[in-house]
Amino acid sequence: MHKNRLSKVMTMAEAIDRFVADGATVALGTSLEPLIPFAAGHELIRQRRQDLELVGPISDSLFDELIGAGCVRRITAAWVGNVSEGLGHCYRRAAEQGIPRSIEIHDHTNFSISMALWAAAWNVPFLPARTLLGSDILRTNPNVREVDGLVHISAVRPDVTILHVQRCDAQGRAHAWGPLGISEEAGLAAERVIISCEELVDPAVTLSDPNRILLPETKVVAVVHEPGGAHPSPVQGFWKRDHALDNAYAAESRTREGYEAWLKRWVLDVPDRKTYMTMVEVDSILITGNRPSEPVNFADE
Amino acid sequence: MHKNRLSKVMTMAEAIDRFVADGATVALGTSLEPLIPFAAGHELIRQRRQDLELVGPISDSLFDELIGAGCVRRITAAWVGNVSEGLGHCYRRAAEQGIPRSIEIHDHTNFSISMALWAAAWNVPFLPARTLLGSDILRTNPNVREVDGLVHISAVRPDVTILHVQRCDAQGRAHAWGPLGISEEAGLAAERVIISCEELVDPAVTLSDPNRILLPETKVVAVVHEPGGAHPSPVQGFWKRDHALDNAYAAESRTREGYEAWLKRWVLDVPDRKTYMTMVEVDSILITGNRPSEPVNFADE
Amino acid sequence: MSDAYTSQELMIAVAAREIRDRELVFVGMRLPIVAYAVARNTHAPNARGLFEVGLMRDHAASSYLGTMGDPPNVAGALWATRMSNVMALMAQGGVDLGFIGGAEVDRYGNLNTSYVGPPERPRVKLPGSGGGADIAILSRRWVTLMTHERRRLVERVSFITSPGHGDGSPDWRRRHGLLGGGPAAIITTLCVFRFPSGGGEAYVDTVHPGSTLAEVREMTGWDVSVGADVGETPPPTAAELREIRQRSTVGSQ
Amino acid sequence: MSDAYTSQELMIAVAAREIRDRELVFVGMRLPIVAYAVARNTHAPNARGLFEVGLMRDHAASSYLGTMGDPPNVAGALWATRMSNVMALMAQGGVDLGFIGGAEVDRYGNLNTSYVGPPERPRVKLPGSGGGADIAILSRRWVTLMTHERRRLVERVSFITSPGHGDGSPDWRRRHGLLGGGPAAIITTLCVFRFPSGGGEAYVDTVHPGSTLAEVREMTGWDVSVGADVGETPPPTAAELREIRQRSTVGSQ
Predict the structure, then answer these.
(1) How many domains does chain C have?
(2) Fewer CB within a 10 Å sphere, N or C end of chain A?
(3) Does D26 fall in a domain?
(4) Is residue D192 part of a domain?
(5) Residue in B with minimal Cα distance to A287
């Protein structure tokens, strides 16, 4: 039945090469703390992407890493730092001293960045919301403004949204579970979507539960089978959060030299995610239990 | 762990009596053609609710039945009729001749009624949308207006949304599957939600899959265990659509006398849904197959 | 299989041919559901169907549908979701083709499914827009199917539920902010009307076998324009008829 | 179990007491996660926690959380959903209490988590709002926890990320359209500040055991107001300490 559909499976290197251009607006880390597509972020760094606009709510240290690597022109996000420590050291250096380059910052809140993406999803120039009133973010972000006691939040339309999910088939039907943050609106708003997944599964699995399919396959241009692709962030049913590694990043990135050493060790000298995962102490973070969802019956007769 | 939670389980008669007042704004049939809460609608008729405002997209013949019974003051919907035939005969009589009473009509489209409910869910007075431009609905519905090339759709806030779902627990955690129409926004926008369900299940079932829980339990005030409560509309995994019965309604409701006979037989003389279901030829519409969703793993360690 | 065919079968075949391969089609109810199945199983194997109830499919349902939300349309779907997500795709221009039903259509392709006569006291209260106006405004192009009667094909609809080309003036849609391209065809029991690119007035493109232009003129409520090269509508092929007849037709009402 | 406790443990206990039974609490990260667990397992067995990542819970996670989206916080949740649904509840006034962290707070309870110094070239770039501003504007009341230092408790924050009572003028929030009630307390390592109903300036309500008002004055960047009836903060109870110590504390960073 699906024989006419071309597979969208490719390597992360190919997906980033083909679908993320210099200057692109890229949404990442849209589930907040879990399911952050770190593997994709590292590949963006390895391919030396320039002038990106990063869009997201809170994506632990991923945005900080990309800023440190000099890939970023603009941040359109609610929060950039690392969850272990708070402050993002690369973010600080860029914003305070222009190291390695200066960046433009469009501050959002979690709610407002969600509304900005829903606006793009529904193809309207703005959505009104009850947040941001009384906040100085109204003074510094040119894309939010107070009108008649509401705040109009301008649409943010990613060129590409990159999502890490638990399982996906070759045609791009992605199943994600656990809290979803702003992943749905980030995917719908985007021109195109890249999926990385823990498991590449048969369409019989994904189509057994069309309610769990996160996005229309028509948005998905690439499917990357990338186990551990969200490390050190957690993946329900697969990986706990690697607190130790996140703490180490927070500590090492305090100095520019420390960050550069970290970058060399964990990104630049690592050819791909498979190699990266051999460097991770997986025993302590692997989820081995089973806590299955109760099936539902989609029968029609 | 849940011993402190009071059960919300009650009969449909009690749920309607306690939570739907005369004059209330009630959202029904929010999944469009499937999962229409006909049992709740029939109980509204039996309890002689007056002056209701009905909110929905397309709810097959349910709105037509309620209009014929004289329960309705205003229609805020995209479509009222019956799917078998198109024209809603009670709706025609009310709008054209004021029989059994005249009604006010706020025309919507499917998209615009969804936006009206999202506006209420996010507690903003309106949401802008790209629909309705060039339509005469802009002339007749006072709650939509063109502003700067967009249409501002005023919030619609139901006092109560009534949903029929496949399974629910006593605390109001509802699992619904299949297409969801505008059920999520109708539930979030409402002051309170009444759930009727095919199966009343243990919380272990619903909490095994928190992604499938349709709405926060804090909105749900009543859970009615009502097998067949959506008949003649379909329920994935439980009931096919009863085309014959829907056709019969379309034919019988052509005249006021026909409608009144139908109403007496199928609603007024029927004490409850259990009795109603004994009058239905269930063999041809019962779904007996199993097409289970593939489980997902929510394990955390 | 008989070579004879009903006018409904012809309409379904014509509607199916409007669907191009790889398109995303906003299907709607009744005849278009069958048209999608025919197209998918003949010339457009990669066409996807989108349903406002909250579904996307890449193949037709395996059995009869009374509504788009019937269980056979859900089983095997590519996506079961909320209506507002489906509408998002359409608002972005992601829907190539939509089908809309109507009680009345006028020479500019405007559809009325709301009121015949004054809205405050209508002569006939029709069911309303459903998703019709949304499709009319937002899909890249759309098609309507209608029984060819003088009371349905009228000079001017009394209420524009789903806008076509408005008053027919050049670029009416763009000037009024409507994102989609508007009506591409009116498929009736007698003929196929099409529209000039950029909008304007419907013209007769082909007349169905067994019908005549005179009959079309007689049964149409406006002074009919005729295309430069009016032809005969190609009858359903054997493959089309086979697909149509495999499904119980849904348009008996 | 020792009767001694750290100032962090006291802050958690005080935060837990802000949670009333049956309330819906927007929890946030670090200390408040533990505070929710303490409240839930002592005086507020029916309090529910809401997390912007897209979760609702009626009991604390069974093991250590580095983030609100860690797997133990998802297992057994009452709802796993989108952030915009969680925000919908809060925009409707459905969230009774929120917790917000901050780098700086001023006498009117305004929080800065964005920029120290001019935004175009800040002396310190802080991480930003996250959901902080949303909670500050929309929850019915909120509380912040902070290390008591002069550089943190400042006369006037250089950037209002999360508005408290603005310039302290009567009804500032209502006049500016902010739906929620604003800050109810600032819990520091030395004391608890509260606010008059209707807004205005923070006053010292209780001083923690072992601290003094003089010390509070010394360590606060504004001329401190003191409540009519300033008392001592009740220390953590044995039950509170037991709950706190059952969980790895999360605030070590």
Answers:
(1) 1
(2) N
(3) yes
(4) yes
(5) B301
B180: nearest CB among C29, C68, C82 = C82
Three-state DSSP at A272 gives: coil
Q: Are strands B72-79 and B104-107 parallel, antiparallel or unpaired?
A: parallel
Q: Name the nearest CA neighbour of A86 among D67, C60, B31.
A: D67
HEC states along D210-232? CCCHHHHHHHCCCCCEEEEEEEE
CB within 8 Å of A290: residues ≥ 6 apart? B297, B299
Ranges of beta strands (E only) in C79-162 are: 79-80, 97-100, 104-106, 111-112, 115-116, 124-125, 141-146, 153-154
Sign of the CA dihedral running D193, D195, D196, D197:
negative
User: Is B236 an 8 Å CB contact of chain C?
Assistant: yes
Cβ neighbours, 10 Å, residue B37 = 31
* B107 inside 8 A of chain C by CB: yes
Out of B4, B122, B210, the one facing D77 most closely (by C-beta) is B210
Q: Exposure pattern of C39-77 as b/e (b: 16+ CB <10 Å)?
A: bbbbbbeebbbbbbbbbbbbbbbeeebbbbbbbbbbbbb
Q: Where are the domains of chain B?
A: 12-278
d(CA B25, CA B44): 13
Taking the C-alpha atoms of A126, A131, A137 and A138 in order, what is their torsion angle to the nearest 10 degrees? Answer: 60
State whether D125 and A84 contact (CB < 8 Å): no
Domain of residue C26, residue span: 7-245
User: How far apart (Å, rounded) are the C-alpha atoms in residues B264 and B272?
Assistant: 13
pLDDT digits (tens, 9 = 90+) for B181-216: 999 999 999 999 999 999 999 999 999 999 999 999
- Substitution target from D26, D27, D53, D248 for chain A, most A beta carbons within 10 A: D53
- Report d(CA D240, CA D37) in Å as an integer: 10
Q: Between C119, C132, C176, which is nearest B140 by CB?
A: C119
pLDDT, tens digit, for every residue of D55-90?
999 999 988 899 999 999 999 999 999 999 999 999
CATH code, domain carrying D38 = 3.40.1080.10
Asked if the Cβ–Cβ distance from D89 to B300 is below 8 Å, we say no
Contact B299 D71 (CB under 8 A): yes
Measured CA to CA, the distance from residue A126 to residue B199 in angstroms comes to 42
The pLDDT of residue C250 is 44
C153 φ/ψ angles, rounded to the nearest 5 degrees: -95, 95
Q: Is residue D144 part of a domain?
A: yes
Q: Which one of D23, D52, D240, D243 is the catalytic residue?
A: D52
| Amino acid of residue B54 | L
Q: Please answer yes or no on whether B92 and C124 come within 8 Å at the CB atom.
A: yes
Q: Name all contacts of A253-257 with Cβ < 8 Å and 24+ positions apart.
A: A253/A61, A253/A64, A253/A68, A253/A82, A253/A88, A253/A89, A253/A90, A254/A89, A255/A89, A256/A93, A256/A99
Strand duo A25-27 + D97-100: pairing? unpaired
Q: Please confirm, yes or no, whether D52 is among the known catalytic residues.
A: yes
Please name the residue that has the structure tokens 């003088």: C150
Q: State how far residue A45 is from chain B, nearest Cα, in angstroms.
A: 31
pLDDT of the residue at A28: 98
Identity of the amino acid at D141: R
Beta-ladder partners of A152: A128, A145
For residue B232, say if its preceding peptide bond is cis, omega within 30 degrees of 0.
yes
Closest residue, chain C, to B60 (C-alpha)? C67
Domain range A12-278, CATH architecture: 3-Layer(aba) Sandwich (3.40)
pTM above 0.95, yes or no: yes
Give a yes or no: residue D253 inside a domain.
Answer: no
Q: How confident is the model over B235-246, as pLDDT tens digits?
A: 999 999 999 998
- Judged by DSSP in three states, B7 sits in coil
Q: What is the dihedral of CA B203, B207, B212, B218, to 10 degrees?
A: 70
| Closest-approach residue (CA) in chain B for A122 | B129
